[in-house]
Amino acid sequence: MEVKVIWSKRAIKGLTKIFEYYSQEASLSVAQKLVKALVDSTIQLKQFPQSGSEEQLLKGNQKEYRYIIIGNYKILYYLKPNQIIISNVFDCRQNPTKIK
Q: Which of 9, 17, 48, 62 has its CA at 20 to 30 Å from residue 26's CA atom?
């Protein structure tokens, strides 16, 4: 049975903000490439859902959050039976406590 990768509303909103920022500050092409790289990076999780590291700042939550790093961004996710939920895209250049 294949595992599905599902993007939460919060994660999609984060991608949209990243796209809008880079569209204005760099170019449409740069924004498209970055967002595509972020989305494509989650494909590996279908075969290797445990490949991301545990997010230590979110330990103690009911869910076990994991992450993968792509450039300056941390893609946070957690596992459900047959699903990987992408919960947020976090810019690592921010204060780390904002991740909570």
A: 9
